[in-house]
Amino acid sequence: MTGDIRVDAVDPAGAIAETRAAADASSRRRFLLAVTAGAAGLTALASAPAARAASKNDVAILNYALTLEELQAAFYSEAERGKALSGQTAVAARTLGAVERAHVGALRKVLGRSAVAKPFFDFQGTTENQDVFLKTAVAFEDLAVAAYKGQAPLIDAPEVLAAAISIHSVEARHAAWIRFLVGAPPVIAALDEPQSRDEVLALVRATGFIARRPRTASRRRPKFTG
Fold first, then answer.
1. Is residue 167 pLDDT above 70, yes or no?
2. Residue 188: predicted pLDDT
3. Which of 2, 25, 106, 125 is the most buried (most CB within 10 A)?
4. b/e string for 159-168 if b means 16 or more Cβ within 10 A?
5. Full-model pTM
6. Spatial contact of 120 and 213, defined as CB atoms under 8 Å apart
7. What is the structure's pLDDT at 77?
8. Cβ distance 175 to 138 under 8 Å?
9. How far does the chain reach from its first CA to its final CA, in angstroms?
């Protein structure tokens, strides 16, 4: 999903590291306020009559988004509980985990009985090593941005589209933050390419993170997300 990201390859002059060191508490607070806004559109949608009359196509798209959000929420939640992260990486896991859990809750409220079951996960120890966690988080967030962009033109209801776009913009902020922490450029190109549902699901299957039973390859706690 992403290659091996090396700080010296993308920031030879140390500008990213210098900027990271200069970031103050007020800027972090402003960012935290911004990323928590993503579920607002879905919360409004959940109380709207349109949510109860969503097309089969929109229900399928929302369930697809829900699966991706469950994956991200579980990943960050497991990392937070494992306590293997430190510094701003630990702050990011805690903050983004809360946002992804809010996305999950809002999507489940919208879908009601049409929501798919929560999967089981096996993160194979990626939540228990800070460097591996960051690279995996970059891959997850980049994939989420591409996934939402790929589905936006296919959505039927304007209310569902508005909610999806509100989450898409927050996922883009997540991707920029995690890329900043790993030392990779937040912006790679002038235009981002979308990815289809088949492409995204193939990548997710290839990770082996969605499992038939709740388990992990690591012997350390937490043994599984559930």
1. yes
2. 78
3. 106
4. bbbebbebbb
5. 0.77
6. yes
7. 95
8. yes
9. 24
